[in-house]
Amino acid sequence: MADPDPKRQLEDLDARLSALKAAQKSEKAHQEEHYSQAQVAWRMVTEMVAGLGIGFGIGYGLDYAFGTTPFLMVLFTLLGVAAGINVMLRTAKEVQATQMGAQAARDKTGGPDGGEHEGK
Question: Where does the record place Basic and acidic residues bias (predicted)?
Fold first, then answer.
């Protein structure tokens, strides 16, 4: 039968709820990390395509305005690709710095991945 003490029942319920919330929080943290990596990948792809498209558009417009055939279009498309790669590298450095900061915080707090790993 049930425990007649309501205070003890509330404490048991609180303990079970806390355990359930902790389990959900750890699952959610893993999912957020996965989605953030996918978002970073799409961000890089978008930056690359945007640089390419903007360079192509500027080059095509200038070629049309000046009457040059494909010269400026090719030039500005290559400059757009270079700008896209530059922005992608900057994003990669930003993500790497964020991950390094998170790793340092885990090491400082003694998280599950805290500690040195030896590769053999």
Answer: 105-120
0.70 surpassed by pTM: no
- The domain in which residue 82 lies consists of 35-107
In this structure, what token pair is assigned to residue 101?
Answer: 């900061």
Residue 19 lies in a domain: no
Is the CB of residue 111 less than 8 Å from the CB of residue 96?
Answer: no
C-alpha distances out from residue 50 to 18, 25, 75, 92, 95, Å: 46, 36, 16, 17, 20
Cα distances from 21 to residues 14, 26, 27, 113, in angstroms, run 10, 9, 10, 21
**Count of structural domains within the chain:** 1
CB 111 within 8 A of CB 101: no
Tell me what the mean pLDDT of segment 57-68 comes to: 95
62 three-class SS: helix
Whether 68 and 92 have beta carbons less than 8 Å apart is answered as no
